[in-house]
């Protein structure tokens, strides 16, 4: 399952989550973001119950993007216990993405 994060639910869904959370910072106009969307959806399914996976639109939630210094998108931030513990930017292969994710969550 893939979540949609916003200013309204970010604290509850991300910062207070008992699971690690992968946040995909994206924008509708961003082509690399569109390229990564199927990979993010696939990983959300593969890691169901282990990692909460969701997207946040930077144009609609600028304050959160600024707080976590998101300057380029797609930008993926992994949160654990309310803190960002990893950050990777740009389009990548599913294998590379999975490897980066597993280094942090396992």
UniProtKB/TrEMBL annotation:
UniProt-listed GO biological process terms: cell redox homeostasis
Residues the UniProt record annotates as site (Contributes to redox potential value): 31-32
Keyword Transport appears in the UniProt entry: yes
Domain Thioredoxin: 1-106
Annotated InterPro entries: Thioredoxin (IPR005746), Thioredoxin-like_sf (IPR036249), Thioredoxin_domain (IPR013766)
SUPFAM superfamilies: Thioredoxin-like
GO MF assignments: protein-disulfide reductase activity
Keywords: Disulfide bond, Electron transport, Redox-active center, Transport
Domain of life assignment: Bacteria
Family the UniProt entry places it in: Belongs to the thioredoxin family.
The protein's name: Thioredoxin
Species this chain originates from: Waltera acetigignens
Species classification: Bacteria, Bacillati, Bacillota, Clostridia, Lachnospirales
Gene it is expressed from: trxA
